[in-house]
Amino acid sequence: MSKILPSKVTHRRVLYLAIPVVLSNATMPILGAVDTAVVGQMGLAAPIGAVGIAAVIITAIFWLFGFLRMGVSGLTAQALGEKNIIEANALLIRSLIIGFVVGLFFIILQSPLFFGALYISPASEDVKFLAKEYLNIRIYSGPAVIGLYGITGWLIAKERTKSIFLIQFLMNAINISLDLVFVLQLEMGVEGVASASLIAEWSGFLIGLWLTKEAFGKSTWKNKKHIFDTIRLKKMAIVNTDILIRTLLLQAAILSFIFLGSSFDDNTLAANQILIQFLHIASYGLDGFAVASESLVGKAVGAKKINDLRQTVKVTSIWGAITIIFMTAFFGIFGDIFIKLMTTSIDIQNITTQYLPWMIMAPLAGGASWMLDGIFIGATRTADMRNMMIISFIVYIISIIIFLPYFGNHGLWLALIIFYIARGITLGLRYNKIEISLTTKSG
Q1: Which residues contact 146 (CB under 8 A, 6 or more apart)?
Q2: What is the DSSP letter of 83?
């Protein structure tokens, strides 16, 4: 039986939603470090490079459908706000069907996918050979990984973020344990790392199915007419397509930043890579409150309660601002220490320190856009997200053209900061449309 959700938007409710997501995000870098460490025990460079490249490739392939997480979250939250339990459950089932079909599609097309990805890679032939072995195994986790995006979004909408943390924790525990057995004891090498991930991801998917079993009641599962309703499928497709375009442009901005940074000397490239890790940490910290916005805004929009919408925006923004201030102070005080922990090269340390002020500014510049993403996902104002991202991306490109030739890497960082500010401003200017549409629906 579904847990009865609280009716008021309070600080406690927001923290209850946000903290498990932050803790779940905090576990992600640990797994990558363990994967690298176990293959590092082989004493060869090629396996380390192969696991790194192959993991990036397979993650990029699967994340093409990462929009399912956000789309399912917003739509399900609105269905719950409308007290339409049948539709909320149907959204999970639709996402699982999509995950299975798309995952199977990737398995069938794995050969050309991997050939193209490895062809453009500058890695050595030894690394490419080992990476191909890794990819040949990991691709079979596609249905589980993509299906888990839908499960995660559904659990967010249901305010069951503790379940998300449980799934992530158990997946990582299984993965790390199998890493140690397959690689260190059975000496399976790169294939052992891939096999550990494959088993862990399918285990996480099965755990997710068990945690969402309430959605598979007879009233939903046997109602094929509702699950495959053309109008609802079209709405889901539009929402997910908008988020996909938005996400692709966001990834293009980050990848172009890394690519353009590689045009400088190796030490500057290394400095940018270190500081980008700090940027990921900042986004992980804010992600919990953005997720809380998705769920609570979605319910407010579904129930047509403008006061709940405003209270959600107020409370999540307060905690978002606290997190931003903390992150800015943290990087300002401890940034030099973490730089020294991440590299022993004095030259790289000195160069990274030169650009550290940009990283200190990043949470201040990007915080509004990260929080507004959660609000707009919950309201399913995905067309606005898409259009404002297009505008911001154009501003970013113009900024690069203007500042990069004159200020070098400082100009590149300035363009990225402007990109984040543009995203926050453009989305902020569209926020009033959410309230207007809600008022109109209520009238």
Answers
A1: 62, 65, 68, 98, 99, 102, 103
A2: T
Rounded to the nearest angstrom, the gap between the alpha carbon of residue 192 and the centroid of all alpha carbons in its chain is 26
CA–CA–CA angle 100, 20, 328 (5° rounding): 115
Q: Which residue bears the tokens 């986790």?
A: 141
Angle at 187 between CA 182 and CA 192, to 5 degrees: 40
Nearest to 154 by CA among 295, 330, 284: 295
User: How confident is the model over 162-187, as pLDDT tens digits?
Assistant: 999 999 999 989 998 998 999 888 88
**Rounded (10°) angle between helices 142-157 and 85-108:** 160
pTM of the predicted model as reported, rounded to 2 decimal places: 0.86
Residue 1, exposed/middle/buried by CB under 10 A (0-12, 13-18, 19+)?
Answer: exposed
- C-alpha to C-alpha distance for 297 and 313, rounded to whole angstroms: 8
Helices (H) and strands (E) in the chain, counts: 17, 0
304 token code pair:
């047509």
